[in-house]
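Sorry to interrupt, but I need a hand with the structure work. Could you add the entry underneath, on a fresh line?
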Amino acid sequence: MTTADESVLGVPMKWVSLTLMIMQMVAMVFVLRVSRTQSVDGPRYLNTTAIFFSEAIKFLVSFILHWWSSSSFRQMCADLHANTVGNPKELAKTFVPSFLYTVQNNLLFIALSHLTAATYQVTYQFKILTTAGLSVMMLGTRLTSDKWFALALLTIGVAIVNLSSNQAKGPVSEDASRSNLIGLAAVLSACVTSGFAGVYTEKILKQTKASLWVRNMQMGFFGSLFALAIAFETDGPKIRKDGFMQGYTKLVWTVVLFQAVGGLIVAAVMKYADNILKCFGCAIAIVLTCFLSFAELHEFTPDWRFGIGLLLVLVATTIYSLGLPRWAEKDEMLSLFNKVEKSVVTSQKSIV
């Protein structure tokens, strides 16, 4: 059975994976935001320990999937030995992305503790810009003029959304302003770490024969160690006082599970769905998150600025993934970005 023919209960896998991706993106933000803002009796759970458990679950799930995809248990063990003890240099390459993803996940918890779910979800799309920029610098990727145009739209859209969020309720207190700055700094830093980790992971995957599940196992293992070290370094006194699993409820375990399976679902979407469906799913997830933030969490009241910013982000995401429609290919703005692209390439050649 080919990839295109695979299905679950008669439903093609591309639609199953796409639905799971939308559910994970929306539910992860919604549940995490609720878990960080709802009133609790006793100490609140520590995001650093939640990251540890999510990395441990990622390792376990990747191990099971690698076992399932191997021809036998012996073959799986031989494969693991060849990509760990048998090749320590390749194993060491996963240190960097493992650490960065662990830091990124901690930053996302911090961001959702200070920003509304809608503002977070839209602003986090800024990772497209950081990933593109780092791809150009680290992998020598050439960006087309429509991608440069999309990145410019994305930057403007994210800026307008944050301007709307800061002015939606009029004058804010000093503490609220500081909280917004902390959340914005956290999500933008997460965009940078996400971009660097993603580009670095892409680079090492192209240079090795290790399977995706083996790499996920390696990063899950080292991610668990890094998360454990960060937990005791950051929250050591709290852990010694109230325990490693203080404040854990069914809701918190749901957050941990969504955090752990996110990467695996994205991998399934990349395998079974095309770029058009992935872009469509991301747009739906962003809109649904904004709706839930407004209708269920009552965190903000969207105004015309937020609407324009959201529209620009959605359009930018679509253009970056699919390119401009034919009728816009001769647009004057696109011609301007063609000139910019040529000047960038010329400067790069002159530097070399």
